[in-house]
Amino acid sequence: MVNDVATAVRLASLFCHKLGIPAAPVLGSKRQEQLVKVYEPILKNEGKEVTKGGMHPAWRWFSQICPLLPLVQSEDKWEFGNEPCHKLYQKVLVADNDDDSDDEDWQESDKKYTCPLYYKCPRHHLEHDIATALVWIFTPASFIHTRVPRQGFEQDLTFAEAVYRECKYLFVDEADRVQIQFDEEFAPDEVLVDASGNSFLNKLGLNLATIYNSDRGDMAGDRFVAWTSAHYHTQNTTNRIYHLLLTHSKLVAWLGPLPFTGRSLFARIIRDLVDPPEIPVLAKPKLTRQQIMEERRKRIIEADLAPTEQRRRRKQMMDQLDGFLQHPLNRGLGGELSGLALTILTAEDDRQALAEIAPWCKRWIEIHNLSLPDETQFEELTRNLQFAILVTILDNRLGFIVDNLSDLGRVINLHDSSQDLLHRPPDDFLPVLPESPVGNILGFLYKQERSAKKAGKLDYFRYVGVGRALLLNFPKLFAVDDWDGPHTVLISGTSYAPGSPAYHISVKPKVLLQPRTGEAGIAESQFFFSPKQNPQANYIALSGLPPATRKLAAKEMVEAMCYSVRGGESFLDGVFQDLAQRKQQQPEWWSDRDRILIVVGSYDESEWVTSILQSRYRFDVNINDDGIATLRRDNAPTHLHGILRSEIRNLQHLPTQIVVAPLMALERGHNILNAQGKAAFGAVLFLNRPMPVPDNWQSTVQQLNAWALKHEKDSTLYEEAQSISGNLTLTQVADIFYQNAVAEMVNLNYTAWAFKQLTQGERSVLCWTQLVSIWQIIGRLVRGGVPAVVHFIDVKFAPNSAIDEQDSESTSLLVAIIKVLEPYVEGEDVLARSLYGTFLNALKQMRERNLNYD
Questions:
Q1: Does the predicted TM-score (pTM) go above 0.90?
Q2: What is the 3-state secondary structure (H, E, C) of 368-384?
Q3: What is the pLDDT of residues 792-834, one digit of tens each?
Q4: What does the alpha-carbon distance between residue 141 and residue 173 come to, in Å, rounded to a whole number?
Q5: Do 185 and 144 form a contact (C-beta atoms < 8 A)?
Q6: Distinct helix (H) and strand (E) counts, the chain
Q7: Are 804 and 736 in contact (CB under 8 A)?
């Protein structure tokens, strides 16, 4: 299993065409997308036979020849990847024909057939090779989602199941990264709305513009009309939801940081009516963040169940709303509340909407013999009901959009729209994977911006299982059926990272492979803290700034690196000069390595920094505009300048001297070498202090999954309940585990915004995760046993050291990483010492320069 499609095809081609071992890549069903991913890096320009006008042997797996196409009318021809290979049918005569015309009516038969040419068809060479291959090459996505061709196996299986049954060995490269991807596969999320302009609903609305610039002929299809109607209701509902969130702070506070759905909001409203929350009288003393987290956890875990009668009343009220919750815009099935929902969607303002909700709310309360809240509380109740109704509509209509989105690819352009939610984890795995520790949920999550005047971010997600368990338990996944899986080998240089919920593999490594070239080059690497000042002599920071301010700061940073006093040497000139001197002194290490990698936070920031560099920096030698290039996604439009991510391995053939790239894009899986087989880059500049997005749902999922597997056999969770109630039932055990998991999720969703505010535990998680990312980038520069020059540019790396004061683990990420690593590397942990010892030494040597800490 490898990281991407291009690597899978390249490796399969090596086995098959160079080593003579039958092999094949297992790719997804969207053949056109796979072809785009491999055409530039492999099929277009690799191999001697290609340069001589021949054809790369991997073209066999992407043949576009279809024997049926000459028999099809031009307007009915299908695109590559959309062939009706298993959907052929016979025409049958319509039995009842009342038409007086002589024309006979024919229709499709219900039975579908496989094309008789399938087994000889050039378009299906890949399936033929998969059936006879001794080696299969997967990506994490194809391993989970791709199904075995129906002609290759009599049962309907995913390839993961086929591997379990048919293979003797499974090798997983970059296992820690695969662990992250498996977590994401079983907890996909999508940003519906945010300030970036790249969110799902914003992109979808823009892509639909093509419809309104046409004759609307597509409206002839009933399904398309239903979809556009659902899209209208989705956008309308989202606008009204955001209006409420932006104008009512009490509503945002009521929501809190937890995920929600229409059903969960109605359940909460009913619970508050049946069991009114107690209002604390005495103000509590000010607590630290750690104390607040402990109090919050205790309150959630120790919450008593409501009395039986109250639970019965709550269930009765929820059951009566079930028709509306399932069919919110259908008056026949949803009843009076559905009529109210349709009225709210056409209300001119909040006042009109609340005027419609209030009478229904009073009748609802009276019917169930509940006490009517006072005027202020009643106003809040109607506001919460309005929000719950809108979320129920959004949940329903958005689900319809997502379920039918793939069918609209022929009508609207979905190329640049994220479709993560379309790739639902197959149900095949759910019986053998642990379910989500907080229960299987599908819903929304709203994160408020630090500035109350700005709109927050609305996420839509599914969370159905602990994805990493598929990787960690794979050899015994179907042991209950008395089947043993393949011997599974997990390979990674950074999968031992205690404290990192993302990268740490909770299976102790059994083999440590030492590099053939030794660690001499790594030990000779040098790290520098090199903050830059703006014209006002203030040190420049990027980390933690809002997007607009950060963009200006990045411009200042680049200009500071290019600035030279009175024709003197700029910082970038100095880095190139340093590399040139090292080349003269030790050519075996530094020859043909006079290239600089600049690491930033995102692809957008990479493009922005590159544009500023190209306008500000001039090389001493005659290098054209290609001397500075940005890294681009593999699916980036072809007219954009830059280097595709899958082509960066060919850097030695390009005139590029400076590459600007996002941290996570080159974190792993790329050998960027020069003609001598050594690392092509000699220096790396970390332009910003890497920090995770505070409200990243995937980070929450990773930590919850790590928590669940760590505590799945932890008996201490149940000791207190056991001491009170004696032996516990399985239901009670499940409830206690769930309560602890919810408490963990609540605390994770109250993540601190600032580095200084992190608790010791939060800081440890952050440091272990970020040191792996930083070390992986540096790993690109030490290939072949050569050293690297590393500069940390953002002043936030060590803000006190920049002004000749002392930093600590609560002010500096660099110092915090040192403090986290020291107990492991300098103790008896052989693995930590082998993996991170040289990295720690290089960090500690910065103390001899300008990193000040105790």
A1: no
A2: CCCCCCCHHHHHHHHHH
A3: 999 999 999 999 999 999 999 999 999 999 999 998 888 899 8
A4: 14
A5: yes
A6: 32, 16
A7: no
